[in-house]
Amino acid sequence: MSDTKKNATFRSGFVALIGRPNVGKSTLMNRLIGQKIAITSNKPQTTRNRIQTVYTDERGQIIFLDTPGIHKARNKLGEYMAEVTESTLKDVDLILWLVEPTDYIGAGEQAILARLRKVDTPVMLVINKIDKVKKEEILRFIDVYRKEYDFAAIVPVSALKGENTDDLTDTIFTYLPEGPQYYDEDTVTDQPERQIAAEMIREKALRNLEDEIPHGIAVLIDRMKEREGGTLIDIDATIICERESHKGIIIGKKGLMLKKIGTDARRDIEMMTGTKINLKLWVKVKENWRDSDSLIRNYGYRDPEE
Ligand SMILES: Nc1nc2c(ncn2[C@@H]2O[C@H](COP(=O)(O)OP(=O)(O)OP(=O)(O)O)[C@@H](O)[C@H]2O)c(=O)[nH]1
Ligand SMILES: [Mg+2]
To answer: What is the mean pLDDT of the chain?
Structure first.
């Protein structure tokens, strides 16, 4: 190790990603850590739990906290998601507020601004999806937001294309305090493999199904067991939905939809585990589970602080 390295400051801290549903928080977090941990989709309210990931290099360690998008709760699951986001805002070193590139600050964004004005934590504005607009427009968007709040920094990026995301990491480090390495450098996430596998199945359901059905889905892993010799993992999982009619759509004609969800999910889980997967999927109806405290908990949505 060179002398400069030895003497360099090691910075570390907790960084929350917040913003409205669908702005690209999970896509950005995956990009910044260089791995797919959080699921993403073009349906709002994809993320339901707080997902912690860790990025470590010689400059320091960043612990990212991906949160559910901020929206008006319409059921108990929505209330739970709002609490997860709210509790994450406390005790972080830096908040990354993601927005889409527009020159109009809508009601959703105004509500978030009002909340941010109540916290002391530095807030960095990340204007995501800049691949969708002309370069010369970006300064205008920056200007609109700059007038509203005293941001620690404003960084335009494309999480999807990886544009300017290295600069974002640099900027994050400059705002973190000198600190310890909280996790060893091999740690990437706090999510157990079982949980990520369930999420990957839910992602494929979100991506393959239309309309309101995906919002009422939860996934339970009934069994995840490695066979002797470690060459194969058997996974039995149940997709929970809210209505009998939804069950029919999830299974699809001749079972084709369920097969597609299973094939897509298996591929991702095999990538994650590096092992062949034998995945069996079932579908069950639990009416209005999103309004039942006990079912929400059964399906894995619990306060991260508990
Ligand atoms: N064009 C473009 N699309 C993006 C970019 N980042 C994310 N997306 C897309 O935006 C959609 C939402 O992305 P997510 O990462 O799931 O958004 P999120 O903010 O985590 O959403 P919730 O979990 O529902 O709050 C997906 O279809 C992404 O592919 C980007 O930089 N450019
Ligand atoms: Mg998300």
So the answer is: 94
CA of 27 to the centre of ligand 2 (A): 7
| 41 Cβ inside 6 Å of ligand 1 | yes
Nearest CA to ligand 1 atom 24: 45
Supply the pLDDT for residue 302.
79
pLDDT of residue 49: 95
Q: Is the CB of 61 under 6 A from ligand 1?
A: no
Ligand lying nearest the CA atom of residue 24: 1
Instruction: Indicate whether 306 pLDDT > 70.
Output: no
Average pLDDT over residues 21-41: 97
Nearest alpha carbon, ligand 1 atom 21: 22
Q: Domains (ranges, CATH) in the chain?
A: 3-174 (3.40.50.300), 193-298 (3.30.300.20)
What is the chain's percent helix, strand, coil content, to nearest 5? 40, 25, 35
pTM given for the model:
0.95
Quote the pLDDT of residue 156: 98
Q: In what order do the strands lie in the sheet with 232-241?
A: 218-226, 232-241, 276-285
